[in-house]
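stuck on this chain:
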Amino acid sequence: MLVDRYQIFENIESVQFKTKKKKKMTANKRLFQETSTKKSFRLKKSKKYYAHNFFSIIFFIFPLHFLVKTLTLLYLNLYFSFIVLQLLLKLLNILFSLLLHFLKIVISDFFLSSKSHIF
């Protein structure tokens, strides 16, 4: 009984295999199939191209970002050091002006005192 069922199944399968015929493609269908495969290939290629561009842009932007960041920090560092330098120069200017003023007072007092002794 089992063998009969297996043979029946095998016969049905062979009949189905025999009834399947290759369909002849018309020229339009063949052209459509070729163009669709070309389009899908082109689409895959363009996706790869855009993905490549995306990653190349990312790998270009990150170093550029770090370069801009370091240049900005360097600029700020120089800017603040320049501000500190300006403040130091102003402080030195004030100190020298005070010293000069003090020297003027001392020298003038000295000369005034010496003149008073002379006359």
Observations:
- Helices lie at 2-19, 27-118.
- The chain is about 90% helix and 0% strand.
